Amino acid sequence: MKRPTIRDLADAAGVSIATANRVLSGVDGVRANTREKVRVAAQTIGFYGLGAIESRNAAARPKYRFGIILLQPHRPFYQLVARALLDAAAAEEAVDIDLRIEHLEDLSPQNTADRALALAKECDAICVTTAVHPVVAQAIADIATRGIPVFALISQLSATGQIHYIGLDNWKVGRTAAWAFEHICKVPGKIGLLMGNPRYRNQEMNETGFRSYFREHARDFVLLEPLSTFESSAVAQEMTERLLQEHADLAGLYVAGGGISGVLAALRTTGRAGTLVVVGYELMDNVKAALIDGTLTLSIAHPLARLAKETIAAMTKAVQAPNRVANYTSIVPFDIYTRENI
To answer: Is residue 342 part of a domain?
Structure first.
Protein backbone atom coordinates (compact mmCIF):
# COMPACT_ATOMS: atom_id res chain seq x y z
CA MET A 1 0.00 0.00 0.00
CA LYS A 2 1.25 3.48 -0.79
CA ARG A 3 2.12 5.87 1.99
CA PRO A 4 -0.75 8.28 2.87
CA THR A 5 -0.30 11.75 1.38
CA ILE A 6 -1.16 15.19 2.69
CA ARG A 7 -4.29 15.02 0.53
CA ASP A 8 -5.30 11.76 2.18
CA LEU A 9 -4.77 13.42 5.57
CA ALA A 10 -6.90 16.43 4.62
CA ASP A 11 -9.69 14.22 3.31
CA ALA A 12 -9.65 12.03 6.42
CA ALA A 13 -9.80 15.09 8.68
CA GLY A 14 -12.41 16.90 6.61
CA VAL A 15 -10.23 19.98 6.12
CA SER A 16 -8.47 21.63 3.21
CA ILE A 17 -4.97 20.65 2.14
CA ALA A 18 -3.81 24.14 3.14
CA THR A 19 -5.17 23.63 6.67
CA ALA A 20 -3.56 20.21 6.95
CA ASN A 21 -0.25 21.75 5.91
CA ARG A 22 -0.60 24.53 8.46
CA VAL A 23 -1.18 21.97 11.23
CA LEU A 24 1.79 19.92 10.06
CA SER A 25 4.08 22.96 10.01
CA GLY A 26 2.81 24.35 13.31
CA VAL A 27 1.55 27.67 11.94
CA ASP A 28 -0.41 29.84 14.40
CA GLY A 29 -4.07 30.66 13.91
CA VAL A 30 -5.48 27.13 13.59
CA ARG A 31 -8.22 26.28 16.07
CA ALA A 32 -7.43 23.68 18.71
CA ASN A 33 -10.31 21.40 17.68
CA THR A 34 -9.12 21.53 14.05
CA ARG A 35 -5.60 20.59 15.12
CA GLU A 36 -7.04 17.69 17.08
CA LYS A 37 -9.13 16.50 14.11
CA VAL A 38 -6.02 16.43 11.95
CA ARG A 39 -4.06 14.59 14.63
CA VAL A 40 -6.77 11.92 14.99
CA ALA A 41 -6.94 11.54 11.20
CA ALA A 42 -3.15 11.17 11.00
CA GLN A 43 -3.26 8.46 13.65
CA THR A 44 -6.13 6.67 11.91
CA ILE A 45 -4.58 6.53 8.43
CA GLY A 46 -1.00 6.03 9.60
CA PHE A 47 0.26 9.35 8.29
CA TYR A 48 4.06 9.61 8.43
CA GLY A 49 4.01 13.05 10.07
CA LEU A 50 1.97 12.05 13.15
CA GLY A 51 4.86 12.71 15.53
CA ALA A 52 5.42 16.20 14.14
CA ILE A 53 1.71 16.99 14.33
CA GLU A 54 1.50 15.85 17.97
CA SER A 55 4.58 17.87 18.89
CA ARG A 56 3.36 21.05 17.18
CA ASN A 57 -0.15 20.68 18.54
CA ALA A 58 1.29 20.44 22.03
CA ALA A 59 3.41 23.54 21.48
CA ALA A 60 0.39 25.46 20.16
CA ARG A 61 -1.86 24.65 23.13
CA PRO A 62 -2.62 27.56 25.49
CA LYS A 63 -0.84 27.29 28.82
CA TYR A 64 -2.50 28.34 32.09
CA ARG A 65 -1.55 28.21 35.74
CA PHE A 66 -4.38 27.64 38.19
CA GLY A 67 -4.11 27.96 41.97
CA ILE A 68 -6.18 25.77 44.30
CA ILE A 69 -6.54 26.26 48.05
CA LEU A 70 -7.86 23.29 50.02
CA LEU A 71 -8.20 22.49 53.70
CA GLN A 72 -5.71 20.59 55.86
CA PRO A 73 -3.34 18.13 54.19
CA HIS A 74 -4.00 15.35 56.73
CA ARG A 75 -7.70 15.10 55.83
CA PRO A 76 -8.31 12.18 53.43
CA PHE A 77 -11.20 13.91 51.67
CA TYR A 78 -9.08 16.85 50.57
CA GLN A 79 -6.32 14.48 49.48
CA LEU A 80 -8.91 12.81 47.23
CA VAL A 81 -10.07 16.20 45.93
CA ALA A 82 -6.48 17.17 45.09
CA ARG A 83 -5.90 13.89 43.26
CA ALA A 84 -9.10 14.32 41.24
CA LEU A 85 -8.13 17.88 40.27
CA LEU A 86 -4.65 16.80 39.16
CA ASP A 87 -6.16 14.00 37.07
CA ALA A 88 -8.69 16.36 35.49
CA ALA A 89 -5.98 18.90 34.61
CA ALA A 90 -3.79 16.18 33.09
CA ALA A 91 -6.72 14.90 31.00
CA GLU A 92 -7.24 18.27 29.28
CA GLU A 93 -6.22 17.97 25.63
CA ALA A 94 -6.90 21.48 24.35
CA VAL A 95 -4.82 23.33 26.98
CA ASP A 96 -1.80 22.73 29.19
CA ILE A 97 -2.59 23.38 32.86
CA ASP A 98 -0.04 23.89 35.60
CA LEU A 99 -1.99 23.21 38.80
CA ARG A 100 -0.68 24.70 42.05
CA ILE A 101 -2.45 23.08 45.00
CA GLU A 102 -1.99 24.33 48.57
CA HIS A 103 -3.43 22.58 51.63
CA LEU A 104 -3.76 25.03 54.50
CA GLU A 105 -2.95 23.69 57.95
CA ASP A 106 -3.75 27.08 59.46
CA LEU A 107 -7.39 27.80 58.58
CA SER A 108 -7.50 31.24 60.18
CA PRO A 109 -9.14 33.89 57.98
CA GLN A 110 -5.95 35.98 57.81
CA ASN A 111 -3.80 33.06 56.68
CA THR A 112 -6.37 32.04 54.09
CA ALA A 113 -6.54 35.60 52.77
CA ASP A 114 -2.74 35.91 52.67
CA ARG A 115 -2.30 32.64 50.79
CA ALA A 116 -5.05 33.50 48.29
CA LEU A 117 -3.45 36.88 47.58
CA ALA A 118 -0.02 35.31 47.15
CA LEU A 119 -1.30 32.57 44.86
CA ALA A 120 -3.23 35.06 42.73
CA LYS A 121 0.04 36.88 41.92
CA GLU A 122 1.36 33.88 40.02
CA CYS A 123 -1.82 32.27 38.65
CA ASP A 124 -4.31 32.96 35.88
CA ALA A 125 -7.24 31.94 38.10
CA ILE A 126 -7.69 30.64 41.64
CA CYS A 127 -10.15 28.35 43.37
CA VAL A 128 -10.60 28.25 47.15
CA THR A 129 -12.31 26.15 49.79
CA THR A 130 -12.77 28.35 52.83
CA ALA A 131 -15.12 29.61 55.48
CA VAL A 132 -16.92 32.90 54.91
CA HIS A 133 -15.24 35.76 56.76
CA PRO A 134 -14.87 39.52 56.08
CA VAL A 135 -11.07 39.23 55.88
CA VAL A 136 -11.32 36.49 53.26
CA ALA A 137 -14.07 38.32 51.39
CA GLN A 138 -11.91 41.44 51.14
CA ALA A 139 -8.98 39.45 49.77
CA ILE A 140 -11.22 37.79 47.19
CA ALA A 141 -12.57 41.18 46.14
CA ASP A 142 -9.03 42.55 45.76
CA ILE A 143 -8.06 39.60 43.58
CA ALA A 144 -11.14 39.99 41.41
CA THR A 145 -10.41 43.69 40.78
CA ARG A 146 -7.10 42.62 39.22
CA GLY A 147 -9.01 40.59 36.67
CA ILE A 148 -8.12 37.21 38.18
CA PRO A 149 -11.15 34.86 38.13
CA VAL A 150 -11.97 33.48 41.58
CA PHE A 151 -13.91 30.27 42.19
CA ALA A 152 -15.34 28.79 45.37
CA LEU A 153 -15.02 25.01 45.58
CA ILE A 154 -17.31 22.82 47.72
CA SER A 155 -18.43 25.72 49.92
CA GLN A 156 -20.00 28.84 48.43
CA LEU A 157 -18.53 32.24 49.25
CA SER A 158 -21.45 34.32 48.04
CA ALA A 159 -25.18 33.74 48.34
CA THR A 160 -25.84 35.96 45.33
CA GLY A 161 -23.64 34.13 42.83
CA GLN A 162 -21.10 36.95 42.56
CA ILE A 163 -18.30 34.41 43.03
CA HIS A 164 -18.27 31.40 40.72
CA TYR A 165 -19.05 28.18 42.61
CA ILE A 166 -18.43 24.52 41.81
CA GLY A 167 -20.12 22.11 44.18
CA LEU A 168 -23.36 20.62 45.45
CA ASP A 169 -26.76 22.13 46.12
CA ASN A 170 -26.31 21.82 49.86
CA TRP A 171 -29.91 22.72 50.68
CA LYS A 172 -30.90 19.57 48.76
CA VAL A 173 -28.17 17.60 50.57
CA GLY A 174 -29.72 18.55 53.91
CA ARG A 175 -33.24 17.69 52.82
CA THR A 176 -32.08 14.35 51.42
CA ALA A 177 -30.41 13.50 54.73
CA ALA A 178 -33.64 14.37 56.54
CA TRP A 179 -35.63 12.23 54.13
CA ALA A 180 -33.34 9.31 54.96
CA PHE A 181 -34.00 9.64 58.71
CA GLU A 182 -37.76 9.84 58.21
CA HIS A 183 -37.79 6.69 56.09
CA ILE A 184 -35.14 4.60 57.88
CA CYS A 185 -35.86 5.27 61.56
CA LYS A 186 -38.40 2.73 62.79
CA VAL A 187 -40.11 5.34 64.97
CA PRO A 188 -39.65 9.13 65.29
CA GLY A 189 -37.13 10.23 67.89
CA LYS A 190 -34.29 12.57 68.69
CA ILE A 191 -31.83 13.45 65.94
CA GLY A 192 -28.41 14.89 66.79
CA LEU A 193 -26.62 17.18 64.35
CA LEU A 194 -22.87 17.75 64.12
CA MET A 195 -21.47 20.56 61.99
CA GLY A 196 -17.87 21.49 61.35
CA ASN A 197 -18.08 25.27 61.41
CA PRO A 198 -21.15 27.46 60.77
CA ARG A 199 -18.99 29.88 58.77
CA TYR A 200 -18.82 27.31 55.97
CA ARG A 201 -21.77 28.26 53.82
CA ASN A 202 -22.25 24.71 52.53
CA GLN A 203 -22.79 23.45 56.08
CA GLU A 204 -25.11 26.33 56.93
CA MET A 205 -27.27 25.57 53.88
CA ASN A 206 -27.09 21.89 54.73
CA GLU A 207 -28.58 22.53 58.17
CA THR A 208 -31.24 24.84 56.71
CA GLY A 209 -32.40 22.19 54.24
CA PHE A 210 -32.30 19.52 56.94
CA ARG A 211 -34.56 21.48 59.29
CA SER A 212 -36.91 22.61 56.53
CA TYR A 213 -37.69 19.01 55.58
CA PHE A 214 -38.59 18.04 59.14
CA ARG A 215 -40.79 21.11 59.56
CA GLU A 216 -42.61 20.19 56.37
CA HIS A 217 -42.84 16.39 56.55
CA ALA A 218 -41.76 14.91 59.89
CA ARG A 219 -42.76 17.05 62.84
CA ASP A 220 -42.74 14.09 65.25
CA PHE A 221 -38.93 14.04 65.23
CA VAL A 222 -37.03 16.14 67.77
CA LEU A 223 -34.03 17.95 66.34
CA LEU A 224 -31.35 18.74 68.89
CA GLU A 225 -29.32 21.92 68.68
CA PRO A 226 -26.32 21.51 66.34
CA LEU A 227 -22.88 21.01 67.85
CA SER A 228 -19.74 22.37 66.18
CA THR A 229 -16.74 20.08 65.73
CA PHE A 230 -14.55 22.87 64.33
CA GLU A 231 -13.37 20.41 61.67
CA SER A 232 -11.56 18.38 64.37
CA SER A 233 -11.87 14.62 64.77
CA ALA A 234 -10.98 14.87 68.47
CA VAL A 235 -13.70 17.43 69.10
CA ALA A 236 -16.17 15.41 67.01
CA GLN A 237 -15.48 12.33 69.14
CA GLU A 238 -16.01 14.32 72.32
CA MET A 239 -19.25 15.87 71.02
CA THR A 240 -20.58 12.48 69.94
CA GLU A 241 -19.79 10.88 73.28
CA ARG A 242 -21.57 13.75 75.04
CA LEU A 243 -24.65 13.35 72.83
CA LEU A 244 -24.80 9.62 73.48
CA GLN A 245 -24.39 10.13 77.23
CA GLU A 246 -26.97 12.91 77.53
CA HIS A 247 -29.51 11.34 75.16
CA ALA A 248 -29.63 7.60 75.70
CA ASP A 249 -32.77 7.50 73.52
CA LEU A 250 -31.04 9.14 70.53
CA ALA A 251 -32.58 7.73 67.32
CA GLY A 252 -30.22 9.21 64.77
CA LEU A 253 -27.14 11.30 64.17
CA TYR A 254 -26.43 13.50 61.18
CA VAL A 255 -22.76 14.36 60.59
CA ALA A 256 -23.01 17.34 58.25
CA GLY A 257 -19.31 18.17 58.18
CA GLY A 258 -15.96 17.98 59.93
CA GLY A 259 -14.49 15.14 61.96
CA ILE A 260 -16.38 12.05 60.87
CA SER A 261 -13.53 9.76 61.93
CA GLY A 262 -14.03 10.98 65.51
CA VAL A 263 -17.76 10.31 65.28
CA LEU A 264 -17.15 6.75 64.09
CA ALA A 265 -14.63 6.16 66.88
CA ALA A 266 -17.12 7.38 69.50
CA LEU A 267 -19.90 5.15 68.21
CA ARG A 268 -17.63 2.11 68.35
CA THR A 269 -16.01 2.73 71.73
CA THR A 270 -19.39 3.38 73.40
CA GLY A 271 -20.90 0.25 71.90
CA ARG A 272 -23.54 2.28 70.03
CA ALA A 273 -22.36 1.39 66.52
CA GLY A 274 -25.29 -0.03 64.56
CA THR A 275 -27.88 0.92 67.20
CA LEU A 276 -28.95 4.21 65.61
CA VAL A 277 -29.31 5.67 62.14
CA VAL A 278 -26.21 7.66 61.19
CA VAL A 279 -25.89 9.72 58.02
CA GLY A 280 -22.41 10.93 57.10
CA TYR A 281 -20.54 12.40 54.17
CA GLU A 282 -18.09 11.49 51.38
CA LEU A 283 -16.55 8.07 50.69
CA MET A 284 -13.12 7.88 52.26
CA ASP A 285 -11.76 4.49 53.33
CA ASN A 286 -13.00 4.90 56.91
CA VAL A 287 -16.48 5.76 55.64
CA LYS A 288 -16.53 2.68 53.40
CA ALA A 289 -15.55 0.51 56.35
CA ALA A 290 -18.22 2.11 58.53
CA LEU A 291 -20.91 1.52 55.90
CA ILE A 292 -19.90 -2.10 55.56
CA ASP A 293 -19.91 -2.86 59.31
CA GLY A 294 -23.12 -0.90 59.95
CA THR A 295 -21.65 1.94 62.02
CA LEU A 296 -22.77 4.31 59.27
CA THR A 297 -26.15 3.94 57.58
CA LEU A 298 -25.80 6.23 54.59
CA SER A 299 -23.31 8.70 53.15
CA ILE A 300 -23.86 11.65 50.82
CA ALA A 301 -20.80 12.37 48.69
CA HIS A 302 -19.33 14.65 46.07
CA PRO A 303 -18.76 12.91 42.70
CA LEU A 304 -15.07 13.85 42.76
CA ALA A 305 -14.15 13.10 39.14
CA ARG A 306 -17.03 15.20 37.84
CA LEU A 307 -16.45 17.94 40.42
CA ALA A 308 -12.81 18.22 39.33
CA LYS A 309 -13.64 18.13 35.63
CA GLU A 310 -16.24 20.89 36.03
CA THR A 311 -13.76 22.98 38.05
CA ILE A 312 -10.97 22.79 35.49
CA ALA A 313 -13.37 23.42 32.61
CA ALA A 314 -14.94 26.46 34.29
CA MET A 315 -11.59 28.00 35.22
CA THR A 316 -10.36 27.49 31.65
CA LYS A 317 -13.44 29.18 30.19
CA ALA A 318 -13.06 32.10 32.57
CA VAL A 319 -9.45 32.84 31.60
CA GLN A 320 -10.12 32.34 27.90
CA ALA A 321 -12.82 35.03 27.89
CA PRO A 322 -11.57 37.64 30.39
CA ASN A 323 -13.82 40.43 29.14
CA ARG A 324 -16.98 38.37 29.02
CA VAL A 325 -19.49 38.87 31.82
CA ALA A 326 -20.52 35.30 32.67
CA ASN A 327 -21.32 33.12 35.63
CA TYR A 328 -19.35 29.88 35.59
CA THR A 329 -21.12 28.33 38.58
CA SER A 330 -21.75 24.60 38.19
CA ILE A 331 -23.96 22.58 40.56
CA VAL A 332 -23.04 18.91 40.37
CA PRO A 333 -25.36 16.09 41.50
CA PHE A 334 -24.38 14.25 44.66
CA ASP A 335 -23.89 10.52 45.16
CA ILE A 336 -25.63 8.45 47.83
CA TYR A 337 -23.93 5.37 49.30
CA THR A 338 -25.10 2.55 51.53
CA ARG A 339 -23.39 -0.75 52.31
CA GLU A 340 -25.22 -2.24 49.31
CA ASN A 341 -23.73 -0.04 46.56
CA ILE A 342 -20.10 0.64 47.46
So the answer is: no
Instruction: Tell me the per-residue pLDDT of 223-275, one tens digit each, with 9 for 90 and over.
Output: 999 999 988 999 999 999 999 999 999 999 999 988 999 999 999 999 999 99
Q: Contact 125/99 with Cβ under 8 angstroms?
A: no
Instruction: Give 292's Cβ-side CA count (13 Å radius).
Output: 8
Provide the number of structural domains found in the chain: 3
Q: Is residue 194 part of a domain?
A: yes
Q: In what order do the strands lie in the sheet with 125-128?
A: 96-103, 63-70, 125-128, 150-153, 164-167, 330-331
Alpha helices in the chain (DSSP H): 6-13, 17-25, 32-45, 50-60, 76-91, 109-120, 134-145, 170-184, 201-217, 233-246, 260-269, 285-293, 304-320
Amino acid identity, position 28: D
From the list 6, 62, 8, 7, the residue with the least C-alpha distance to 30 is 62
Predicted confidence (pLDDT) at residue 161 exceeds the cutoff of 80: no
* CA pair distance 269, 255, nearest whole angstrom: 17
Distances 56 to 36, 40, 50, 151 between C-alpha atoms, Å: 11, 14, 10, 32
274 and 182 in one domain?
yes
Q: How many CA atoms lie within 13 A of 209 on its CB side?
A: 21
Q: List, in sequence order, the alpha helices (H) in 284-323.
A: 285-293, 304-320
Query: pLDDT digits over 137-151, tens only?
Result: 999 999 999 999 999
Domain harbouring 313, CATH code: 3.40.50.2300
Same domain, 175 and 288: yes
Residue 288's domain comprises: 170-301
Binned at pLDDT 50, 70 and 90, residue 89 comes out as very high
Looking at the predicted structure, is the pLDDT value of residue 1 above 70? no
Quick check: is 341 in a domain? no
Residues 277 and 298: their CA atoms lie apart, in Å, by 8
CA distance 149 to 140: 10
Sign of CA dihedral 315, 317, 319, 323: negative
- Contact present, 271 and 309 (Cβ < 8 Å): no
213 and 282 assigned to the same domain: yes
